[in-house]
Amino acid sequence: MTTAEKYVTAAYLVVLAVVLLYVVLYAFKMARLTRQIDELAELRARDAAPPQTAAPTQRARPARVTRQ
Amino acid sequence: MSLRNSAGPAAALGAFALLLGGIALAFLWVPNDADQGFSQRIFYIHVPVALTAYACFGWGAWKALRLLWTREQRYDLESYTAIHMGVIFGVLTLVTGSIWARISWGVWWSWSEQQLVLFLVLFLFYSAYFMLRYSTDPGPRRANMSAVYALFGVVLIPVSFLAIRLAKNFIHPVVFTRDGPQMEGTMFLTFCVCLAGVLALATALYQTELAGKRLDVKLRELRESLS
User: Fold this and answer.
1) Mean pLDDT by 10-residue block, N- to C-terminus, for chain A (68 residues)?
2) What's the ipTM?
């Protein structure tokens, strides 16, 4: 491989490397956005759910009745 | 504000096919340049990347003008993304140009070359755009300031492009003259394929980054409304 060939290959590889670096960085960003969407979905589900104290009390009553 | 992005994947596919074809043509089909030999093959990546950088800066300035004209805030994000793309392609232009200079002229950089120095000035001007942008709080004031700055920078594009044509003593080659492209048909065809590929790549990256930034904004608004 001549010196010119090495330099020309290096120039093309630099472009490829920068594009790949951009894609990798963007993949990280997309992962962060996905995580944030999951957090928001969880937050929304928590807000939409009924209060947790009422449900166990209702379930416990029939169990006591059966034992008696 | 739509988050759907159909142009991005199509541009990415187009970029992949065109760049693959262009690089294959550049290495396997076009003949060696009579003057520069094998090293002239950098031309097929360096010049398209440089023209794409100009196009991105120009696109950013156009979006900035649209913002100032219509006061629609969506243009701020579009202008910012285009300038970000221009800076990325500007880095690539400087790096590939330096490599070419090292082979052809024996130096990595020449301060006496107006074309090089003017491109560096253009690149640094748009790099400073980010410093200005992040030194102020988000909002219409920042959008307007950024837009005015982006518009000022666009003046440097024709100056940078015409520098080698106006200069009397230069060593940077002039390929496109008033008489058309000064190269063989095969070389010009390869150059066109590579230019289309790099422009498609810039479009794909621009669309992807814009979609990501819009999603970011939307998520922030949603988070604020929920908390």
Assistant:
1) 87 92 90 86 80 55 45
2) 0.81
